[in-house]
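Support request from a user on the community tier.

User writes: "When I paste my structure tokens into the form, the page sometimes reloads and wipes my input. The last time it worked, I copied everything first. Here is what I submitted, just in case something in the input itself triggers the reload:"
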């Protein structure tokens, strides 16, 4: 908790934020997008000050987006506020709307960081609406000497929250948990699943962890490992769990040599997108199948000697067609374009047992290596009518500087969108903005490991992070919906 007058004033300001009435969304690019983040709720808190470490005030990153499954007017976006130079953030902010985005209300997620009434730093926000309208949030917390996965629930769409429940807590620095996500069984809103990667640095092993709830997130089962790579040092990064139409579970993840929690770096381990399945509600799991072997893309800002885009597609994303059961997976791949950074798509029609050969799916005009044809940060969703949507960033309109970036949405309405020859169209969603103005982390600009895409019955919504020219407000989270922006182009 905050322990001095300045910090207490900061917490009082948080209370005011919690009570802020709905405010009109501010348009920033015609009707194309609206800005969600505004006044920094942690500006008055000093309780998390740390000698030798700094954070970027006014920086938002790695948002999450959720749409009510039966009422698309109800949505929420969560993001990390104020990025520390060593990772994590000063807290999590949630914006919510009940009128399709006409007005939004911002709330601090309580109890997940020192400046929000808890202890530590928060990262990896993930939110999800269950069929009964409850909004669930999960967060990774690095508090004191522990690495914690926590979950909260909101019965009013994100305006007020329960105290966070601890799904797992391990001593640091030996253990390090990362990239948790939460989802539910669409047929049973009380059945929730959370997955994440946990590394044991002492043994240099990674486990894909699972926790379950049968009472709508009020209580959780003890977390347990459901997969451990056979190769020493191999990690499971960015696990994504989906409940298939028949009730089976599928988890897709990247397996590689990424040492979450810091070094030492293991020997070079080839990147693979892999999948495991459960046919008994998570009690037992299949052996992994390899969706694809690939080379991870590492895009650079065009025209620079070496300014990398940090985490440009570390997390493979999945979407499920709830009519057919088809699973779609996307990731950033260096082998499918001369630019060395393209969006790969593969799909499975048999519950994740077998997968189609990956193919480049972004419509970015190609370029020489590390040129303006690089695409990155992919996400995939399938609308209720079966339309597949894939969002991504690229540099194709890079005429104002090396970091000029746009966000696009490619869509397909055929039955097998991963098949060669499937017809895809594209529309512009956001930008251009100068990615190089984002906080630099590990030598390059960083806005998150994912930029979330969500769907309704016929449309899509995105919550991109957009940079600003204001040094005191370097980034903002925006909201874009295809119900607001109908024009379609295919450059």
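"...and here is what came back when it finally went through:"
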């Amino acid at each position: 908790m905050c322990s001095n007058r300045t910090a207490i004033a900061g917490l009082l300001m948080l209370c005011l934020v919690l009570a802020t009435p709905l405010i009109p969304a501010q348009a920033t690019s015609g009707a194309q997008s609206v800005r969600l983040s505004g006044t920094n709720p942690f500006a008055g808190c000093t309780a998390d000050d740390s000698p030798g470490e700094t954070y970027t005030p006014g920086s938002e990153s790695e948002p999450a987006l959720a749409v009510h499954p039966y009422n698309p007017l109800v949505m929420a976006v969560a993001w990390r506020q104020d990025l520390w130079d060593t990772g994590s953030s000063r807290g999590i902010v949630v914006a919510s709307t009940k009128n399709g985005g006409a007005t939004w209300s911002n709330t601090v997620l309580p109890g997940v960081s020192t400046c929000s009434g808890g202890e530590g730093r928060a990262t990896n926000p993930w939110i999800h609406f269950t069929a009964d309208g409850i909004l669930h949030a999960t967060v990774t917390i690095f508090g004191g000497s522990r690495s914690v996965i926590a979950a909260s629930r909101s019965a009013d769409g994100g305006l007020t929250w329960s105290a966070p429940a601890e799904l797992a807590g391990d001593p640091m620095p030996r253990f390090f948990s990362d990239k948790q996500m939460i989802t539910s069984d669409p047929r049973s809103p009380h059945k929730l699943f959370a997955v994440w990667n946990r590394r044991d640095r002492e043994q240099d092993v990674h486990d894909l962890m699972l926790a379950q709830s049968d009472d709508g997130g009020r209580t959780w089962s003890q977390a347990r490992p459901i997969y451990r790579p056979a190769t020493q040092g191999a990690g499971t990064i960015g696990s994504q769990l989906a409940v298939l139409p028949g009730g089976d579970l599928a988890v897709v993840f990247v397996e590689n040599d990424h040492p979450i929690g810091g070094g030492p770096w293991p020997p070079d381990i080839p990147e693979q997108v892999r999948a495991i399945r459960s046919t008994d509600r998570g009690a037992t799991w299949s052996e992994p199948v390899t969706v694809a072997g690939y080379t991870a893309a590492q895009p650079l800002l065009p025209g620079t000697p070496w300014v990398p885009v940090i985490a440009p597609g570390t997390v493979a994303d999945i979407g499920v067609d709830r009519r057919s059961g088809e699973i779609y997976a996307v990731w950033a791949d260096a082998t499918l374009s001369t630019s060395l950074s393209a969006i790969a798509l593969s799909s499975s029609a048999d519950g994740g047992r077998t997968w189609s050969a990956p193919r480049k799916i972004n419509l970015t005009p190609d370029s020489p290596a590390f040129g303006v044809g690089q695409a990155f940060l992919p996400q995939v969703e399938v609308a209720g009518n079966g339309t597949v949507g894939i969002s991504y960033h690229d540099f194709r309109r890079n005429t104002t500087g090396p970091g000029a970036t746009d966000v696009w949405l490619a869509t397909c309405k055929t039955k097998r969108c991963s098949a060669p020859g499937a017809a895809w169209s594209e529309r512009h969603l956001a930008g251009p903005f100068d990615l190089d103005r984002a906080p630099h982390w590990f030598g390059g600009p960083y806005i998150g490991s994912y930029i979330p895409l969500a769907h309704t019955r016929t449309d899509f919504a995105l919550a991109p992070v957009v940079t600003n020219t204001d040094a005191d407000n370097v980034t903002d989270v925006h909201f874009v919906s295809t119900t607001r922006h109908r024009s379609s182009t295919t450059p």
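Agent notes: The reload is a front-end session timeout and is unrelated to the input. The chain has two domains: 1-172, 295-491. DSSP finds one helix and 33 strands in the chain. Escalated to web team.
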